Amino acid sequence: MIEDIRVVNGAIPLTETIPRQQWVEEWGFQLYVKVSAGGRTGWGETLASGGNTREPYAALVDRLAPALRGRDESETDQLWTVMRRLTYSGGYGVTTGAISGIDIALWDLKSREEGKPLAEALGGRAKKVPRYASLSRYQRTEDAVAAVGWLLEQGYATIKLHQSGRDALDAIREVRERFGHGFDLAADLNCAFPYAKALEFMKRTRRHELKWVEEPLWPPDDFDSLRKLNKVGPVAAGENFFSFFEFERLMEMDALTYYQPDIAKIGGVTPALAILKLAKRHGAEVAFHNRPDNGWVSTIGSAHLAAALSPGSVVESPPNEIPGRYFEFHGSMDKTTITPGGPGLGVAPLGSIPLSDRSKMLVFHEH
Whole domain around residue 87: which residue ranges? Predict the structure, then answer.
């Protein structure tokens, strides 16, 4: 039976790149959820994306905890429904984010109790899955280009930029001119452009052969415009969609080339399973979204899901390895792949992780 649910405000620092990136402070905070039952512990992670502030997510976890204590921790589907019904009038966003942390921890706990990696508990096996290195943003275009070269020297083969709409095109062009086309390059625009400018950007980047252009459009939920842009070049999106039904509509429209659920935002493993089954029916490509902030719990959870149910899907990760001083990790990793281990997620924050209640607003768009 569930005995305790609590949040842990981690402050694992972002691994600095060469040159040094922006958002070192903003991406230096994590929100973990720790669920205890029967002498065992499961770990989950919530991406506090709303304003980059953890307080509302943590408060909702605390509100949900009394309704779950004393219940059977193995009844993951039922517990998810309890949480969603308790919060149904709150919609998505913070609501599903808070549920995510609890749900991931419950699946970690359930598969630990079975003595299996999560991938095996889901009916698959803990096999190797592809990862890509996701960079932060850089103040200067030349620094972003240099950071790509630094990663290529280390052996990374798929790299994503996060430059703003102001200089993303310049960065892409300079990366290709300097380092060629022998690796996969993606660009995340963080919803920078209205449709006309997004269309122009898609047309101007076609010759640079990007793996995808991620969230080029503002607002992010203009599905019809995403579909039109996807006819010009490969578009990826999904981190700002929070329900199964949004993904269902997008796939029925054939609106995207890559669909990007984030298990730390959509409600955890439970809804992700339904979305992956949906993707299989539609033949849709999945690229798991994760904030590359050294949180690692949801990243490795995504790797388990990919290994079990979505062969070939790629997992977003920080441009570094798991910092061993902060995590216990039972899988393996190289510059291009993650092999998740077990039992459970096979990853857990250690007692040595730094803690902090601070946070800082993450500003994507210049204003």
Answer: 2-116
d(CA 134, CA 118): 24
Residues 82 and 157 in one domain: no
CA 164 to each of CA 22, 290, 317, 362: distance values in angstroms, whole numbers, following the listed order = 12, 19, 20, 13
**pTM to 2 decimals?**
0.97
Q: Are 171 and 319 part of one and the same domain?
A: yes
What's the gap between Cα 56 and its chain centre? 20
What is the sign, positive or negative, of the torsion defined by CA atoms of 158, 234, 138, 45? Answer: negative
If asked whether residues 32 and 176 sit together in one domain, one would say no
Name every residue whose Cβ is closer than 8 Å to that of residue 220 and which is 6 or more positions away in sequence.
Answer: 191, 237, 240
> How would you classify residue 336: left for phi > 0, otherwise alpha for psi between -120 and 50, otherwise beta?
alpha
Chosen domain end from 89, 116, 143 = 116
Q: How far apart are the first and last CA of the chain?
A: 49
Smallest Cα–Cα separation from 299: which of 259, 273, 258, 329? 329
The pLDDT, as a whole number, for residue 321 is: 96
pLDDT < 50 regions, the chain:
none
**SS3 (DSSP) at 14:** coil
Predicted pLDDT of residue 140: 97
- Exposure b/e, 137-157, CB count within 10 A at least 16 = b: bbeebebbbbbbeebbeeebb
**Domains of the chain: total:** 2
Cis peptide before 19, with omega less than 30 degrees from 0? yes
Give the pair of three-digit tokens for residue 6: 């609590």
- Same domain, yes or no, for 82 and 128? no
Residues 95 and 24 in one domain: yes
Q: Tell me how far apart the alpha carbons of residues 204 and 232 are, in angstroms, rounded to a whole number.
A: 10
β pairing state of 129-134 and 337-339 = antiparallel
Q: What is the pLDDT of residue 346?
A: 98
**Which of 88, 116, 144 is where one domain is finished?**
116
Specify the residue for token string 């549920």. 99
| pLDDT at 363 (0 to 100) | 86
| pLDDT recorded at residue 91 | 85
CA distances from residue 186 to 3, 320, 351 in whole angstroms, order as listed: 44, 18, 36
Cα–Cα distance between 310 and 286 in angstroms, integer? 7
Taking alpha carbons only, the member of 268, 238, 273, 262 closest to residue 100 is 268
